[in-house]
Amino acid sequence: MYPVSAGHPNYSSSGTQGSFIPELWSGKILAKFYSSTVFGEIANVDYEGEIKGYGDKVIVRTTPDITIRDYVIGQNLVYETPESTPVELLIDKGKYFGFKCDDIVVVQSDLRLLEDWTADAGEQMKIAIDTTILAGIYNQAATYNYGNTAGVKTQGYLLGAYGAPLQVTKNNVVDLFIDAASILNERNLPSTDRWIVIPDWIANLIKKSDLKDASMTGDQVSPARNGRIGSIDYWNIYVSNNVYTVTDSTTVPAWYCPFGHKSALTFASQLTKMETLRAESTFGDLVRALNVYGYKVMQSANFGMLYLRR
After folding, report:
1. What's the pLDDT score for residue 187?
2. Could you give the CA distance from residue 125 to residue 120 in angstroms, rounded to a whole number?
3. What is the pLDDT of residues 37-57, one digit of tens each?
4. What is the pLDDT of residue 228?
5. Coil, strand, or helix at residue 127?
6. Is residue 168 within 8 Å of 205, Cβ to Cβ?
7. How many helices (H) and strands (E) are present in the chain, helices listed first?
8. How many Cβ atoms from other residues are within 10 Å of residue 299's Cβ?
9. Which residues, including other chains, have CB under 8 Å from residue 255's CB and lie 6 or more apart?
10. Which residues sit opposite 235 in a β-bridge?
């Protein structure tokens, strides 16, 4: 209600003197902004298959290790039977939304409320799944792909450990990416399809470092949607406010920042239900949707974790 001086009649729509100043509903909706999501960029979805509901499984075949043996003239050859151990991806998680939109609200509004609210729910669904995944994989890296003795061959890299998170500054932030790359190099992983997820404060340090142009990108996909800010040493860098954060035993906030090759993490999802129903107890529509999904670190050797503080 617009302020009125003392003693002056109030003619607003909520006043007691009349309704000379009517309420006006805008034909526009206040803009709403969403956290960037990254799970669609860092995970492979090659094995989604046909998912119908909770409890479904996606069976993933693995490539067995073939033994290489020394040979001398005249020896009998040894033949092995390679075994491909299947890995199960269980679709054991689900998230849903549901809301009601009364007919009168729709009639009185010139906005496409159902479409707008459904679009909002879809964005919130992605953020919720993204947050769950980033919080669920923090402790699944292979030995020597995390901690302060990282490196399967050298054990010579400091990536931070609980009780001793690695402090990142603009002077050492680039070194951090190079060290993480060496972790995967020691695993003989290809330089392509590497990714790393960082919070915005680390992106801030990159922009202030000697590598100020590292955040410039010519990608066709907007950074506002996938969080990508550029590349350093073969890393596809993604910025997310959904990075798993804890209060360390040192009482400082610490971030678990995952990195790896796209082969490490598998994700499968299916929007199994999306329905609009007539409400029984009122005049209006009910909108609801169910998204079932599963994720798994399939190859922990291709996945690592940084444990960082400001």
Report:
1. 95
2. 9
3. 888 889 988 777 677 677 788
4. 57
5. helix
6. yes
7. 6, 12
8. 18
9. 198, 199, 243, 244, 245, 306, 307, 308, 309
10. 194, 232
| Token pair for 73 | 């003239």
For residue 15, which amino acid is it?
G
- What is the spatial distance between Cα 122 and Cα 116, in angstroms, rounded to a whole number? 10
Residue with tokens 């010519």: 218
Q: Which domains does the chain have, with CATH numbers?
A: 31-310 (3.90.1690)
Cα separation of 87 and 296, whole Å?
10
Mean pLDDT over each residue of the chain, to the nearest integer = 82
Which residues are paired to 286 by β-bridges?
100, 277
Q: How far apart are CA 254 and CA 165, in angstroms?
A: 7
The pTM (predicted TM-score) of the whole model is 0.78
| 222 to 58, 216, 227: CA distances (angstroms) | 31, 12, 8
Contact indicator for 235, 259 with CB cutoff of 8 Å: yes
CA–CA dist 23, 14 (Å, integer): 9
Using an 8 Å Cβ cutoff, are 95 and 79 in contact?
A: no
Query: Which residue in the block uniquely carries the two structure tokens 């470092």?
Result: 209
Q: What pLDDT, in 10s, does the model give residues 107-139? A: 555 557 777 888 888 888 889 999 999 999 999
In terms of Cβ atoms closer than 10 Å to its own Cβ (0-12, 13-18, 19+), residue 99 is middle
Q: What one-letter code names the amino acid at 203?
A: A
Do the strands 265-278 and 228-232 form a parallel or antiparallel pair, or are they unpaired?
A: unpaired
Q: Is residue 267 within 8 Å of residue 45, measured between CB atoms? A: yes
Q: Which residues, 6 or more positions from 293, have their beta carbon under 8 angstroms from its beta carbon? A: 91, 93, 94, 95, 129, 267, 268, 269, 270
Q: Are 229 and 221 in contact (CB under 8 A)?
A: no
